[in-house]
Amino acid sequence: MFFIEPIRNFYGRFERPISSLSLILGFVFDAFTLRRVDTLFENVWILGHLIILGIFIILIHIKENEAGSEGNPKKAHFWYVNILQFFFGGTLSAYLVFYFRSSDIFTTWPFIALLVIAFIANESLKRHYIRLSFQISLFFLSIYSFMIFLVPIIFRQISVWMFLLAGLFSLIFIFVFIKILIYLIKDKYFQSRRLIILLISGIFTLINALYFTNLIPPIPLSLKDAGAYHSIQKNAEGNYDVTYENQGWRGYFKLYPDFKETLGKPIYAFSAIFSPKDINLNIVHEWQHYNEASRKWTTESLINLSVNGGRGGGFRTYSMRTNLTTGKWRVNIKTEQNQTIGILRFNVILTDTDLVLTRMIK
What we know:
The protein is an alpha+beta fold. It has helices at 4-13, 15-33, 40-62, 76-101, 105-124, 132-155, 160-184, 186-191, 193-212, and strands at residues 222-229, 231-234, 240-244, 258-262, 266-274, 281-291, 296-307, 315-322, 327-335, 340-351, 358-361. The protein is built from nine helices and eleven strands. Helix 4 (76-101) runs parallel beside helix 6 (132-155). It starts with a helix and ends with a strand.
């Protein structure tokens, strides 16, 4: 058709800025549309991306020997590379959204950084899309990141064994994919075989190291809400009536917002944790005080709490302490496997004056 040729030429001319813009818009789209990690739509959406990635990795290397295909929008190979890049961007942006929601960035930044690096490399290292080893390593990272949260949802439990099973399934899937590659492009695969095995082994080892040092977000769990309050009461509707001191907009920019404590009155640590349907578990509120002299965090209390899965806004629960020492405090909200779901931070200041408190329903 007459209008296809101008569009194709326009895209070929402005390929990089268009690609960068689509990547950013795709991330924004995922941030607003991907809601729950346990819903059928979200998981089918990602699975569809993975299937398309596998298909176009194969097509690229079947068509790679077309003369003048690189940078030529009239050749199929040019579009295969761009489609592959687009769907890698969509897959990685979905993971960034899910994993970022499921973590405290100060605790699990190495794994988030790994996804960010892969996301940026997807845009910046386009010439590497002609290299089979680069594609397969990024594909394996995408499969593994998906299995980490899909397997616990399927088996309805969160544990070390579920993580190990996710790794096993990831290796099985990439092994089957490589078998298909060998059947279709045998010579090209064996030229890169050693590097492919090295990269897959390296990614597998790195992700396991991050998990067992508690640096991977505890997805599919996520902290929906948290706060330090002066009082918490459950009302007749089953919601929580909380009171707090309103510090205005400045409070949002403090890592440790001030909490004025009246001697003898409790401080409540509230948390709302999302867990997929039928995944019930125990969590821990770890109350820690920062010792200025030793410059170390000291654990003052460990409080076990139960969480029931399925509520979109998160299962609401809380712990409380009285007569806290002044200074910096944090409540680490963790799984029984010691993975950090989130951290509640505040700075305790003693006061003997009456406080003006604001009421809120949680």
